[in-house]
Amino acid sequence: MAVRHSASLEDYLEAIMLVAGKTNKATVTRISQSMGVKKPSVSSAITKLSELKLVTHEKYGEISLTDKGKAIARDVYHRHQALRRFLTEILSVDVETAAEDACRMEHYLSSTSMQRLDKFIEFVMECPQGRPVWLEGFNYYLKHGYRNPTQMIACASSCDARNASANPDKIE
């Protein structure tokens, strides 16, 4: 997305998308309930979004995302989901904290960083051998405060073997 909007407006777009669901229609009341904010706050945000041509809204009527609004909402939602997944599945952050942190972080990553994060998550989570050993080692470290001695021995052996095959002339 070339033009970035405030975190607050992006949150409203995401909320409208989620509240509207398959009907593509949302109301001030439903958005207010979903976000835990007062209706006047929603109305104010809807006015701004309408001026930016990101939503259509008739007074006291339903709210719909424009195509541009949908694109931004989908992008924000994707960022949120990717960050939440990274925090829970890779860093082992609890679900509630991860959701809150993802909501804050989703607005500030560049598209380049987000693309790299997506690829990193895909790379780690789609390992053909299952959950990577180093990730299990990280979880052990989080739980115990030190590295798993058994994994350290296996890791060192693996590194030694890799170094030996990469540099056969330097075997001692």
List keywords for this structure.
Arc Repressor Mutant, subunit A; two-stranded antiparallel ribbon
How does this structure look, described?
- By secondary structure, this protein is mainly alpha-helical.
- It folds into three domains: about 5-70, Orthogonal Bundle (Arc Repressor Mutant, subunit A); about 80-125; about 135-165, no CATH class.
- It is about 65% helix and about 5% strand.
- It has helices spanning about 5-20, 30-35, 40-50, 65-90, 95-105, 110-125, 135-145, 150-165; strands at about 55, 65.
- It has a two-stranded antiparallel ribbon with strand order 1-2.
- Helix 1 packs across helix 2 (about 30-35).
- The mean pLDDT is about 90.
What is the C-level CATH assignment of the largest domain?
Mainly Alpha
CATH fold node name of the largest domain? Arc Repressor Mutant, subunit A
Supply the number of structural domains. Answer: 3
Shape: elongated
What is the oligomer described by this structure? single chain
What's the mean pLDDT score?
Answer: 88
Helix content: 55-70%
Determine the number of helices (DSSP H or I, runs of at least 4 residues): 8
Number of strands: 2
Radius of gyration: 23 Å
| End-to-end gap | 54 Å
Beta-strand residue fraction? under 5%
